[in-house]
Design a protein that fits this description.
By secondary structure, the protein is an alpha/beta fold. About 30% of the residues are buried.
Length: about 110
């Protein structure tokens, strides 16, 4: 990695606020969350996402789902994910709870 690439990556990590997402422990929700993260990175340059997992059967399953998402997001998008934990009680949907989303993106997007 070149020094300019490293500097750009550091600016991206520290210049914009973290985006918080609640993501269901389902394949389609994970794919949509990854797509949303990719779009936010491209449009806003955000390098940090706070993730809570919903619809997991246990804390262990939620952590495993998060770790897989974290690994892929870091490898392919170069972003950092922070784990907020399992959010029980959302039966029908998971929401993107992101005050820092780009203009035109829904703040309560079902993912």
């Amino acid at each position: 990695m070149h020094r300019d690439d490293q500097a750009a990556g550091l600016r991206r990590l520290f210049s914009t606020p973290a985006v918080t997402l609640a993501v269901a422990a389902r394949e389609e929700a994970l794919i949509e969350a990854y797509g949303l993260m990719k779009r936010v990175v491209q449009e806003e340059g955000s390098g940090c996402f706070r993730i809570t997992i919903t619809h997991a059967r246990s804390e262990e399953e939620a952590l495993a789902v998060f770790e897989n998402l974290r690994r892929v997001a870091h490898e392919y998008l170069g972003v950092r994910l922070e784990y907020l934990g399992l959010m029980p009680g959302l039966e029908r949907q998971s929401l993107a709870l992101a005050p820092g989303l780009p203009p035109g993106m829904l703040r309560n997007s079902v993912i």
